[in-house]
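Forwarding the complex inputs:
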Amino acid sequence: SQQGEEDPQALSIQEGENATMNCSYKTSINNLQWYRQNSGRGLVHLILIRSNEREKHSGRLRVTLDTSKKSSSLLITASRAADTASYFCATLDLGGSYIPTFGRGTSLIVHP
Amino acid sequence: DGGITQSPKYLFRKEGQNVTLSCEQNLNHDAMYWYRQDPGQGLRLIYYSQIVNDFQKGDIAEGYSVSREKKESFPLTVTSAQKNPTAFYLCASSIIGQGTGDRYGYTFGSGTRLTVV
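Prediction (whole assembly, two chains):
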Protein backbone atom coordinates (compact mmCIF):
# COMPACT_ATOMS: atom_id res chain seq x y z
CA SER A 1 0.00 0.00 0.00
CA GLN A 2 1.09 3.58 -0.58
CA GLN A 3 3.08 5.05 2.25
CA GLY A 4 4.45 8.46 2.96
CA GLU A 5 8.12 8.47 3.81
CA GLU A 6 9.52 11.10 6.14
CA ASP A 7 12.99 12.49 5.84
CA PRO A 8 15.19 12.73 7.81
CA GLN A 9 14.56 9.79 10.14
CA ALA A 10 16.12 11.76 13.00
CA LEU A 11 16.81 15.44 13.56
CA SER A 12 18.67 17.07 16.44
CA ILE A 13 18.70 20.85 16.85
CA GLN A 14 19.14 23.56 19.46
CA GLU A 15 16.27 25.46 20.98
CA GLY A 16 15.40 28.50 18.89
CA GLU A 17 16.44 26.92 15.59
CA ASN A 18 13.97 25.94 12.88
CA ALA A 19 13.20 22.29 12.18
CA THR A 20 12.23 21.06 8.73
CA MET A 21 10.86 17.62 7.99
CA ASN A 22 9.88 16.26 4.61
CA CYS A 23 7.36 13.70 3.45
CA SER A 24 7.27 12.02 0.07
CA TYR A 25 4.48 9.85 -1.29
CA LYS A 26 3.83 7.79 -4.37
CA THR A 27 0.34 8.27 -5.77
CA SER A 28 -2.26 11.02 -6.05
CA ILE A 29 -3.77 12.13 -2.78
CA ASN A 30 -6.86 13.89 -1.53
CA ASN A 31 -5.12 15.42 1.45
CA LEU A 32 -2.02 15.08 3.58
CA GLN A 33 -1.89 15.39 7.34
CA TRP A 34 0.86 15.85 9.88
CA TYR A 35 0.78 14.33 13.35
CA ARG A 36 2.94 14.55 16.43
CA GLN A 37 3.64 11.75 18.90
CA ASN A 38 5.27 12.19 22.25
CA SER A 39 7.10 9.15 23.54
CA GLY A 40 4.71 6.41 24.64
CA ARG A 41 1.60 8.40 23.74
CA GLY A 42 -0.96 8.52 20.97
CA LEU A 43 -0.73 10.70 17.89
CA VAL A 44 -2.04 14.24 17.90
CA HIS A 45 -3.31 15.84 14.71
CA LEU A 46 -1.36 19.01 13.81
CA ILE A 47 -2.48 20.18 10.41
CA LEU A 48 -4.25 19.00 7.26
CA ILE A 49 -3.47 20.32 3.79
CA ARG A 50 -5.67 19.54 0.81
CA SER A 51 -4.35 18.61 -2.61
CA ASN A 52 -5.44 21.98 -4.05
CA GLU A 53 -3.58 23.92 -1.35
CA ARG A 54 0.08 24.83 -1.44
CA GLU A 55 0.75 26.18 2.02
CA LYS A 56 -0.88 26.31 5.45
CA HIS A 57 0.10 27.85 8.74
CA SER A 58 -0.81 27.06 12.32
CA GLY A 59 1.04 28.96 15.00
CA ARG A 60 4.74 28.08 14.63
CA LEU A 61 3.95 25.38 12.08
CA ARG A 62 4.15 25.85 8.32
CA VAL A 63 3.23 23.07 5.93
CA THR A 64 3.80 23.11 2.20
CA LEU A 65 2.57 20.70 -0.43
CA ASP A 66 4.00 20.17 -3.90
CA THR A 67 1.77 17.72 -5.74
CA SER A 68 3.98 17.77 -8.83
CA LYS A 69 6.86 16.43 -6.74
CA LYS A 70 4.56 14.39 -4.49
CA SER A 71 6.12 15.88 -1.41
CA SER A 72 5.27 17.94 1.64
CA SER A 73 7.34 19.69 4.26
CA LEU A 74 6.66 20.61 7.88
CA LEU A 75 8.55 23.58 9.27
CA ILE A 76 8.60 24.30 12.99
CA THR A 77 9.95 27.76 13.64
CA ALA A 78 11.73 28.90 16.81
CA SER A 79 11.72 25.37 18.20
CA ARG A 80 11.37 24.63 21.90
CA ALA A 81 12.47 21.69 24.01
CA ALA A 82 8.77 20.80 24.30
CA ASP A 83 8.68 20.19 20.53
CA THR A 84 10.76 17.05 21.08
CA ALA A 85 8.63 14.26 19.61
CA SER A 86 8.16 12.09 16.54
CA TYR A 87 6.36 13.62 13.58
CA PHE A 88 4.38 11.60 11.06
CA CYS A 89 2.78 12.41 7.77
CA ALA A 90 -0.36 10.60 6.66
CA THR A 91 -1.81 10.59 3.19
CA LEU A 92 -5.37 10.03 2.10
CA ASP A 93 -5.61 8.50 -1.36
CA LEU A 94 -7.85 9.86 -4.10
CA GLY A 95 -9.49 6.45 -4.28
CA GLY A 96 -11.95 7.37 -1.55
CA SER A 97 -11.10 4.64 0.92
CA TYR A 98 -10.77 7.20 3.74
CA ILE A 99 -7.97 5.13 5.23
CA PRO A 100 -4.91 7.20 6.08
CA THR A 101 -1.50 5.70 5.38
CA PHE A 102 1.27 6.72 7.74
CA GLY A 103 4.98 7.08 7.20
CA ARG A 104 7.67 5.91 9.63
CA GLY A 105 8.13 9.33 11.17
CA THR A 106 10.89 11.79 11.92
CA SER A 107 12.28 11.81 15.44
CA LEU A 108 12.98 15.39 16.50
CA ILE A 109 15.12 16.26 19.50
CA VAL A 110 15.34 19.89 20.56
CA HIS A 111 18.15 20.58 23.00
CA PRO A 112 17.55 23.32 25.58
CA ASP B 1 -14.64 16.17 26.99
CA GLY B 2 -14.89 14.10 23.83
CA GLY B 3 -12.16 11.67 22.96
CA ILE B 4 -10.97 8.11 22.66
CA THR B 5 -10.20 5.95 25.64
CA GLN B 6 -7.95 2.93 25.34
CA SER B 7 -7.52 0.45 28.14
CA PRO B 8 -5.53 -0.93 29.68
CA LYS B 9 -2.43 1.22 29.25
CA TYR B 10 -0.17 -1.80 29.82
CA LEU B 11 -1.05 -5.43 29.16
CA PHE B 12 0.91 -8.62 29.60
CA ARG B 13 0.09 -11.75 27.69
CA LYS B 14 1.24 -15.26 28.35
CA GLU B 15 2.06 -17.64 25.52
CA GLY B 16 -1.08 -19.13 23.99
CA GLN B 17 -3.41 -16.64 25.62
CA ASN B 18 -5.96 -14.39 23.93
CA VAL B 19 -6.19 -10.81 25.17
CA THR B 20 -8.61 -8.03 24.34
CA LEU B 21 -7.75 -4.35 24.05
CA SER B 22 -10.54 -1.88 24.63
CA CYS B 23 -11.24 1.23 22.56
CA GLU B 24 -14.18 3.53 23.30
CA GLN B 25 -15.01 6.89 21.70
CA ASN B 26 -17.64 9.49 22.50
CA LEU B 27 -17.01 11.66 19.44
CA ASN B 28 -19.87 10.17 17.41
CA HIS B 29 -17.33 9.22 14.75
CA ASP B 30 -18.41 6.65 12.19
CA ALA B 31 -15.03 5.10 11.47
CA MET B 32 -12.62 3.44 13.85
CA TYR B 33 -9.18 1.97 13.24
CA TRP B 34 -6.57 -0.19 14.93
CA TYR B 35 -2.89 0.35 14.26
CA ARG B 36 0.17 -1.47 15.47
CA GLN B 37 3.38 0.47 16.06
CA ASP B 38 6.79 -1.15 16.24
CA PRO B 39 10.04 0.77 16.65
CA GLY B 40 11.26 2.12 13.32
CA GLN B 41 8.26 0.81 11.38
CA GLY B 42 5.70 3.53 11.84
CA LEU B 43 2.02 2.63 12.03
CA ARG B 44 0.58 -0.42 10.34
CA LEU B 45 -3.16 -0.89 9.90
CA ILE B 46 -4.67 -4.00 11.51
CA TYR B 47 -8.44 -3.55 11.07
CA TYR B 48 -10.87 -0.77 10.42
CA SER B 49 -14.60 -0.27 10.59
CA GLN B 50 -16.66 2.38 8.87
CA ILE B 51 -20.07 1.31 10.11
CA VAL B 52 -21.54 -0.75 12.94
CA ASN B 53 -21.45 -4.52 12.38
CA ASP B 54 -18.98 -4.21 9.55
CA PHE B 55 -15.19 -4.18 9.50
CA GLN B 56 -12.36 -4.74 7.05
CA LYS B 57 -8.90 -6.24 7.28
CA GLY B 58 -5.94 -3.97 7.09
CA ASP B 59 -2.38 -4.79 6.09
CA ILE B 60 -1.54 -7.04 9.06
CA ALA B 61 -4.83 -8.61 10.21
CA GLU B 62 -3.53 -12.15 10.73
CA GLY B 63 -3.69 -13.18 14.38
CA TYR B 64 -6.13 -10.42 15.30
CA SER B 65 -9.91 -10.13 15.47
CA VAL B 66 -12.32 -7.25 16.06
CA SER B 67 -16.01 -6.54 16.56
CA ARG B 68 -18.12 -3.44 16.07
CA GLU B 69 -21.41 -4.04 17.86
CA LYS B 70 -21.77 -0.42 18.92
CA LYS B 71 -20.72 2.80 17.23
CA GLU B 72 -18.73 3.81 20.29
CA SER B 73 -16.73 0.63 20.75
CA PHE B 74 -14.16 -1.24 18.65
CA PRO B 75 -12.32 -3.86 20.75
CA LEU B 76 -9.30 -5.69 19.38
CA THR B 77 -8.50 -9.27 20.36
CA VAL B 78 -4.94 -10.46 19.98
CA THR B 79 -5.20 -14.20 19.54
CA SER B 80 -2.68 -16.94 20.22
CA ALA B 81 -2.16 -17.13 16.45
CA GLN B 82 -0.32 -13.81 16.58
CA LYS B 83 3.23 -15.00 17.13
CA ASN B 84 4.86 -11.66 17.77
CA PRO B 85 2.29 -9.50 19.56
CA THR B 86 4.65 -7.35 21.59
CA ALA B 87 4.00 -3.83 20.30
CA PHE B 88 2.26 -0.54 20.96
CA TYR B 89 -1.37 -0.58 19.80
CA LEU B 90 -3.20 2.57 18.80
CA CYS B 91 -6.90 3.07 18.21
CA ALA B 92 -8.18 5.99 16.14
CA SER B 93 -11.48 7.35 14.91
CA SER B 94 -12.68 9.72 12.23
CA ILE B 95 -15.73 11.14 10.54
CA ILE B 96 -16.52 9.43 7.26
CA GLY B 97 -15.99 11.66 4.30
CA GLN B 98 -12.85 13.35 5.54
CA GLY B 99 -11.44 12.90 2.09
CA THR B 100 -13.12 16.17 1.22
CA GLY B 101 -11.10 17.92 3.84
CA ASP B 102 -12.34 17.89 7.41
CA ARG B 103 -9.95 20.10 9.25
CA TYR B 104 -9.71 17.97 12.38
CA GLY B 105 -8.11 14.88 10.96
CA TYR B 106 -8.08 11.67 12.93
CA THR B 107 -8.31 11.33 16.69
CA PHE B 108 -6.10 8.82 18.45
CA GLY B 109 -6.26 7.17 21.83
CA SER B 110 -3.26 7.11 24.15
CA GLY B 111 -2.34 3.55 23.27
CA THR B 112 -1.92 0.14 24.90
CA ARG B 113 1.51 -1.40 25.27
CA LEU B 114 1.28 -5.19 25.00
CA THR B 115 4.11 -7.39 26.15
CA VAL B 116 4.44 -11.16 25.94
CA VAL B 117 5.76 -12.72 29.14
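The mean pLDDT of chain B is 90.
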